[in-house]
Amino acid sequence: MDAKVNFNKGDLLSGEQAMQLAMDVALTGAPFVSPNPVVGCVVVDHHHRLLATGFHAKYGYDHAEIDALKKLSEAEIRDSIFYVTLEPCAHEGRTGSCAKKIATLPVHKVVYGIQDPNPLVNGQGVAILEKAGIITEEYQGPLKEDLFQLCEIFLKNFIQKKVFIAAKVATSLDGQIALRTGESKWITSPSSREFVHELRSHYDAILVGANTIVQDDPSLNIRHPKIQKSGKIIILDAENSIFEKECKIFKIHQKENILFAVRKSNPRNPYKQIEFTDLLQLTEKFWVEGLRSLFIEGGAHTYSSFLSAGLVDRIFVFMAPSIIGAKNGLAWTSHLGIDSLSKKIEFSQLKVKIIGSDLFMTARMSQS
Amino acid sequence: MDAKVNFNKGDLLSGEQAMQLAMDVALTGAPFVSPNPVVGCVVVDHHHRLLATGFHAKYGYDHAEIDALKKLSEAEIRDSIFYVTLEPCAHEGRTGSCAKKIATLPVHKVVYGIQDPNPLVNGQGVAILEKAGIITEEYQGPLKEDLFQLCEIFLKNFIQKKVFIAAKVATSLDGQIALRTGESKWITSPSSREFVHELRSHYDAILVGANTIVQDDPSLNIRHPKIQKSGKIIILDAENSIFEKECKIFKIHQKENILFAVRKSNPRNPYKQIEFTDLLQLTEKFWVEGLRSLFIEGGAHTYSSFLSAGLVDRIFVFMAPSIIGAKNGLAWTSHLGIDSLSKKIEFSQLKVKIIGSDLFMTARMSQS
């Protein structure tokens, strides 16, 4: 969440700084590691001076610890301290076990952010290290919530075997995303929009309602100076009615990256179609398709439906400091109605900052 | 806005810290100084070690500089540096001129936050000090915007001869303040509500619509461990229809502290009545009544009317991380409608923080 601080080799780091830096470098891999977790690693010497950083850059590539190790000399490894955002893996998967690798080295200590929920790892990475005489320590500090957030997609995937779903909303201060006349334009500032492209890249697929595709004609690609990625686009089109329309999205994205979620398939629709009767079932079908995370970008009907179904794990709200008025405005929750305040949808772990001229907040659904 | 830091006498302060501390102590006077400005003062020695603080505590009481001076020995005054949030006054009003008083003393330097807009002071306080050989410096740093905010009520009063108007809203994340069925309860957390009592105390009067008085039956007093104040209550009751209802407000507040804003006076209404045809005219009548600042606390119709009329200078929004849904919800801008997005109401100088479990934001209307 916070501004990244740049450190150089040799800089003295506190434990918090080392773990924060491990999280910062980890994010570089966020667009590419799925279905693996986002993981970062920072190695310091026994004086707590920075030696190297590493991160899991892409599915199938080196794990964070190995990436960091490759940057260290034998002399540097001796008595070094590793800060890793997630417990080093114990099992041999596509890549070797990180815990076993570290156990062969004269490392002094490993501080890990959270325990791996994978029953193949869960505490076993730690056991391997301790057996080799390496001190281990589970991080217990103010960054704990951020550490869980860093790999929340992986944690939900792994523990619940379900797709992680985030919704991103760009709204006025009074919850309006457009006028009911249909008038709609960028509500938030350019800095917010650049950040949206980064967030998009962290998810396997972007999901948008058919109305929004037709009315706003968005590109929904990832336009970011540092991230090259073409993710999947899911069009929620119950009526299966827009596949022949002239929309940017059909020109910009490769055909195999576009999926239609429909009530009933239509042989004339040239894109892959997934039939659904309700949203929970739809997300289960996405899981079977290999999708592990969704980023919902509107519109009002789509936000309302996913929220009503209790399917939104995290919300990202960009709020411009302007007021549109609910009288002629279109609220992002316009199709969501509760009959008692006791049924309001609660979020927690609120984080907030100013981006450009906008307010940005994110929170996690309380029960998710 | 930010958490106050406690300093002790002798602590070394940076220039920023001294000015921040001057603003922090100034706020203690905020409930009581109207129509004077909120002003704070910090005095440091030539090594920049804290000697004393002072503030304008109440209308008619000592100005901040004099309050600080009274805590200093003759030896301490020698070569001291004053940080004052507002240019020291040049004219003799209810109290003596601060600039003239300081000019008689062996003070080294005076750093002032902003120039006094009062043409009786405007640069003249500085001239008096400089003539006496005291170095003066207008603060130009990151706290400049906060310094203007600290005395924004006074600045608007003085420059425009108009009442300063703030609106405070407690809303869900999607802009709803209740259900349309009438169901309404605390949306935000206890910490937010305590802060509301502090904010209330900074304004001459609280203004609430008649519907809200009847439906929510609020107390609208200032319940804060450190602030004892009974401000005015204005009930916006165009129809002049609620003065005989059984409401807490009529029992809690003294009769002379309650004002009715009505289309037409009614001799049966035992409270003071102010007739109005439009809100701009109403605020002009408030000015004539001696009111210098209003704190609007709802409901939806009242917020919408004041915003439509362009009369809200500052907005305070407490947002709970929960979603109520616009379908059955009552939006705080439900009566506000624009016919083009180009007419949206813009705010700037956005500030944001987390209070308890809520998001708190404040901003200034862009053109005000």
Could you explain the architecture of this structure?
2 copies of one chain form a homodimer. The first copy, chain A, contains 12 helices and 17 strands. Chain A is elongated. The longest helix of chain A has 13 residues, at 15-27. In chain A, strand 16 and strand 17 form a beta hairpin. Chain A has 368 residues and is α/β, with parallel strands linked by helices. Helices cover 26% and strands 25% of the residues of chain A. In chain A, strands 11-10-9-8-12-6-13-17-16 form a 9-stranded mixed beta sheet, with helices on both faces. Chain A folds into 2 domains: 15-153, Cytidine Deaminase, domain 2 (3-Layer(aba) Sandwich), CATH 3.40.140; 162-365, Dihydrofolate Reductase, subunit A. At the A-B interface, strand 7, helix 12, strand 14, strand 16 and strand 17 of A face strand 7, helix 12, strand 14, strand 16 and strand 17 of B. Strand 16 (345-355) of chain A pairs antiparallel with strand 14 of chain B, so a sheet runs across the interface.
Feature tags:
368 residues, Cytidine Deaminase, domain 2, homodimer, 2 domains, Dihydrofolate Reductase, subunit A, elongated, alpha/beta
